[in-house]
Write a structure and sequence with these properties.
Helices cover about 25% and strands about 25% of the residues. It is built from 20 helices and 36 strands. The chain has a 20-stranded antiparallel beta sheet that branches. It has a four-stranded antiparallel beta sheet with strand order 3-6-1-27. The protein has a domain of about 150 residues: Beta-galactosidase, Chain A, domain 5 (Distorted Sandwich). It has about 900 residues and is an alpha+beta fold. Bound molecules: 2-acetamido-2-deoxy-beta-D-glucopyranose (4 copies). One 2-acetamido-2-deoxy-beta-D-glucopyranose binds next to loops. This is Tat pathway signal sequence domain protein. InterPro entries: PcRGLX/YetA-like (IPR045793), PcRGLX/YetA_2nd (IPR048330), PcRGLX/YetA_3rd (IPR048331), PcRGLX_1st (IPR048329). It comes from Parachaetomium inaequale.
Length: about 900
């Protein structure tokens, strides 16, 4: 029996904290996404909890391995105030365990406040704040952040007392025009400007037992006193962990310039590296190449010379060690050292995802000497000395975010520099102008007609990048002496895929903290196994397409395309609304839910890149349209449809909580809270409106009950969960609008309502002021997050949902796919505009599961099989090579991203709700 128990325990069949985490146990296991990393330099993760289990002030969290400190805080609450999501930080550890167990210990009320008060060990992290600066000491490095001026970091010091980085600043180069051709370069007068960071605000986290977060905000200011205003606002977040000599930077910019005057020709982060006193032959340059490779050079090389200084000397230099005393070298070298040139500058440019170039020179006025380059550079540069120490800088997704670069300058002087280029000055400038001149599309009528052919929804002045953003992740590493290149390779592997801790899918599901609409993969029947295979195919195919189609670049990385052109064997990258996808029909939701159920690393990374793209580039963060996203198109921001459905906060929710409340994502969620105000300025349906209504700020506006309301509701719910600064306002609007929907005679079937921006309530639409009941159903209402948002919201409310709201949603889920006769019997008329029935099969599944209605379950599977990607579809690709394509492809010509997303979501949710009746 004991043997059997042990066997079952190994399989995880037996419960108990030791074998398995579940929602009734007080300990939860987290493990690394993918393989356990070689090193942990400090990490933050999120953990969900079931409703009612722990009140924030009645629990203490620690790791069951009592040796490792844990910092804990709350990122989300259930309605009753119990913890929904906690976040935890662990310090750098010498060893990396495959998994960690977070132990929740109930404590007397008021003692905990959700924070670890553990005094088991003295923390090594110390934070000092004065009027002028913030200083963080991790035990391994001390970093100072000035509160004003041009430097985002004033110094990085090692525990050994060496300053290895100083005067860190952001750099920006711009030009006010781009010559159209090479010939035009002579007659176009171009003004070029240089800018650097100008700090406006520096804040530091309050609880710093394991992790300190320093947030630096400001704008880029001109360095030469030109009259260009300060612009391109930035936020740089610095994450520092106990015992770690690494610093993680999350660098975000928002474009607030003019698209035809402010062309970014270089955007970077620059650090000075003190080298005074270091012999030139002891100064080292390391640049990451491909596959963990490095360019290993010294400023003054003593290898390969006509005379040999001796093997020990040569080996030491290549390994980055202090060279033996000159007296031990062959004197034929030491007497001629002054004839060996010093290489002051190095430059690596990754101008495409397929190749990088390398070069070096002795000084700016001399020719570059080319160094053999390669395909995809690792993205790390090191400059330092064998005795003085040095600094390494790494950019995550370096080649995927091309055009990027790494420059080392003045390495032979007292102070060298490393510049990381998030946008390389060697590339053509970032051109955010529209790709066509408007083509005479000066009336709504013409624009709607053009939509009929290119599927582009153009409108003058709407193709603006004003307010879009981009976020990059950067790592800094400090060293007391030049490290081995193997060490640097290990650190760069960490920078490229920062390790992520996450709870098991079983546990997350049980807590319901990310909904009840997904279940674990299940291959117990051939029909279910077939769907699992199909989902796996879809996710792998898109990952492969990212690579095949080179969906990479400063702005593009993370996004996918919308529709395929079977004739050209090419995605329709140049055809209006068929080009970049911009979250159309929620691929973000599919990928994240697929990750939740599988826990797969490839899926996590894909989802993360998508979220980082769609949340930043496809949405506005300042200005009149703050909080709105832009419809799919050739350029991410150029379509005239600026709508809340595209910036849907639900798309960000999974990453936000799982990451332990990624602060940048939290900020993006806040931006969307203001999206309701935009309706007073911009009418989303202005081009098709026939009643002559015009928006005016503050006056009631028409609000689509699916695409508009579901996006606002998601943001309000998240703010309520987070108990953010505006949570009471958010809750009021959520309750107000849901009550309004419930009171509509036809509920969600009404299609829209009149939203009162002033007090967050919803009344019948202008087309039905007396609430007699109208029928206006759109196929789009429920495919931008509405099913996820409402089911989470109803669980959040429990028995406290506004009266009639649950019933209104159940009606919609039943009648959307009902027969014309059923619709007529209920509403007096049948629905027109019903399509996307496969997508909506998950509404039937929801109804069937909550109402225990087998007939509707069968209907769900019938609609699922006969629409969208049909049951008869073979999930295969066809190889196309030769002169038909730029390079060979394996195409799935039958697949569009709309179907990818909605087939994925319908599969996941039908299996979760009505899997047994498949
Ligand atoms: C959950 O874990 C506890 C022990 O912590 C165990 O007693 C219980 O049976 C488990 N429940 C499930 C549903 O696995
Ligand atoms: C503080 O640093 C020392 C030396 O690096 C280390 O041994 C100790 O474990 C650290 N303390 C904590 C709480 O991490
Ligand atoms: C909201 O404003 C409208 C219009 O002024 C008003 O009729 C309604 O009673 C208000 N509702 C609440 C809850 O304040
Ligand atoms: C399923 O739901 C429909 C609509 O409410 C109802 O007419 C039907 O009787 C239900 N069937 C079962 C088996 O409960």
């Amino acid at each position: 029996m004991a043997r059997v128990s042990r066997f079952l325990a190994l399989l995880g069949v037996l419960g108990g904290a030791a074998a398995q985490s579940n929602s009734s146990s007080s300990s939860v296991k987290v493990s690394w996404v993918g393989d356990s990393p070689a090193q942990n330099l400090g990490t933050t993760f999120g953990l969900p909890w079931p409703q009612g289990k722990y009140q924030p002030d009645e629990v203490d969290f620690k790791l069951s391995d009592g040796q490792i400190q844990l910092q804990s805080w709350v990122t989300g609450y259930w309605r009753d105030g119990s913890i929904k999501w906690s976040a935890h930080a662990i310090p750098k550890t010498d060893a990396v365990a495959d998994e960690y167990t977070v132990q929740a210990t109930p404590i007397a009320r008021g003692k905990g406040k959700g924070k670890s008060k553990s005094k088991r060990q003295a923390a090594n992290l110390s934070v000092k704040e004065t009027g002028n600066e913030v200083t963080v000491n991790t035990g391994k490095i001390t970093v100072s952040f000035p509160k004003k001026g041009r430097h985002i970091v004033s110094s990085i010091k090692t525990a050994g007392g060496k300053t290895v980085g100083k005067d860190g600043r952001l750099v920006l180069h711009t030009q006010n025009d781009i010559p159209g051709t090479a010939d035009d370069r002579t007659d176009t007068a171009i003004d070029r400007s240089n800018f650097e960071s100008n700090i406006e605000e520096v804040t530091v986290s309050k609880d710093n037992t394991v992790r300190a977060l320093v947030t630096v905000r400001g704008k880029h200011t001109t360095t030469e006193g030109s009259d260009h205003k300060d612009w391109l606002p930035f936020v740089v977040r610095f994450y520092l962990y106990t015992n770690s000599d690494a610093i993680r930077l999350v660098h975000s910019i928002t474009f607030d310039g003019q698209q035809d005057k402010d062309f970014i020709s270089g955007l970077g982060i620059q650090f000075q590296v003190p080298l005074k006193g270091e012999e030139l032959y002891n100064r080292h340059v390391r640049l990451a190449g491909t596959d963990g490779g490095f360019l290993n050079e010294a400023v003054k090389g003593i290898t390969g010379l006509r005379r040999d200084p001796g093997a020990a000397v040569r080996t030491a230099q290549v390994e980055g060690k202090v060279l033996p005393a000159e007296s031990t070298w062959d004197t034929r070298v030491t007497t001629r050292l002054h004839w060996i040139p010093a290489w002051n500058d190095y430059s690596l440019s990754q101008l495409s995802p397929d190749g990088f170039t390398l070069k070096k020179r002795t000084e700016p006025s001399r020719s570059w000497v080319h160094i053999p380059g390669g395909t995809r550079a690792g993205g790390l540069a090191y400059l330092g000395g064998a005795t003085q120490g040095g600094l390494a800088v790494a950019l995550r997704d370096f080649w995927k975010r091309f055009p990027t670069g790494l420059d080392i300058a003045n390495a032979g002087s007292d102070q060298g520099q490393i510049t990381l280029w998030l946008y390389s000055p060697d590339a053509s400038p970032l051109d955010l102008r529209g790709y066509h001149d408007g083509m005479g599309l000066d009336t709504y009528e013409k624009q709607l007609d053009a939509l009929e052919i290119t599927y582009e929804d153009y409108e003058e002045k709407f193709d603006t990048p004003y307010g879009i953003a981009r976020t990059n992740e950067v790592f800094l590493y400090a060293f007391d002496s030049t490290p081995s290149s193997d060490t640097l390779a290990g650190l760069n592997a960490h920078a490229q895929e920062p390790p992520v801790l996450v709870a098991k899918p079983e546990y997350i599901k049980e807590t319901k903290a990310l909904g009840s609409y997904w279940a674990l993969p299940d291959t117990s029947s051939p029909a279910k196994a077939k769907i699992e295979n199909n989902l796996d195919f879809l996710v792998k195919h898109y990952q492969k397409e990212v690579e095949t189609r080179r969906w990479y670049g400063f702005l593009d990385h993370g996004d996918v395309m919308h529709t395929y052109d079977t004739d050209r064997h090419q995605w329709r990258y140049d055809i209006g609304g068929y080009a970049w996808d911009n979250s159309e029909l929620s691929p973000d939701l599919f990928i994240w839910q697929y990750f939740l159920r599988t826990g797969r690393a490839d899926v996590y990374r894909f989802a993360e890149a998508l979220t980082r793209h769609t949340g930043e580039v496809d949405s506005y963060h300042i200005g009149d349209w703050k909080g709105l996203g832009t419809r799919h198109g050739v350029m991410h921001f150029a379509d005239s449809a600026k709508q809340a459905r595209i910036s849907q906060p639900q798309y960000r929710k999974y990453f936000f909580y799982i990451s332990g409340g990624d602060e940048r994502t939290g900020e993006l969620l806040e931006h969307t809270l203001d999206a309701d105000k935009t309706y007073g300025k911009l009418d989303p349906v202005r081009k098709v409106r026939t009643d002559g209504w015009k928006p005016s700020p503050g006056a009631p506006v028409t609000f689509g009950l699916g695409t508009d309301w579901a996006a606002m509701a998601a943001g309000w719910l998240i703010e309520w969960e987070r108990r953010g600064p505006r949570w009471e306002e958010a809750r009021k609007k959520l309750v107000g609008t849901a009550t309004g929907i419930a009171k509509l005679k036809n509920g969600f079937v009404t299609g829209s309502g009149s939203y009162l921006i002033e007090n967050g309530t919803l009344q019948p639409p202008p087309t039905d002021p007396d609430n007699k009941g109208i029928v206006a159903v759109s196929h789009l209402n429920a495919v931008f997050g509405m099913p996820e948002v409402i089911s989470e919201l109803l669980e959040y409310w429990g028995g406290d949902a506004p009266q009639g709201f649950r019933e209104a949603w159940l009606d919609y889920t039943y009648y959307y796919s009902g027969t014309a006769a059923e619709q007529t019997a209920r509403y007096g008329t049948s629905f027109s505009g019903v399509s996307l029935k496969q997508a909506h099969s998950r509404l039937s599944a929801y109804y069937a599961a909550t109402q225990h209605n087998a007939t509707v379950a069968a209907r769900a599977w019938k609609d699922y099989r006969n629409d969208g990607i049909k049951d008869t579809q073979e999930f295969t690709t066809a190889h196309v090579g030769g002169s038909a394509v730029v390079h060979p492809v394996d195409e799935a010509a039958w697949l569009s991203t709309n179907d990818f997303a909605q087939y994925g979501l319908a599969s996941i949710q039908n299996l979760a709700y009505v899997g047994d009746s498949i």
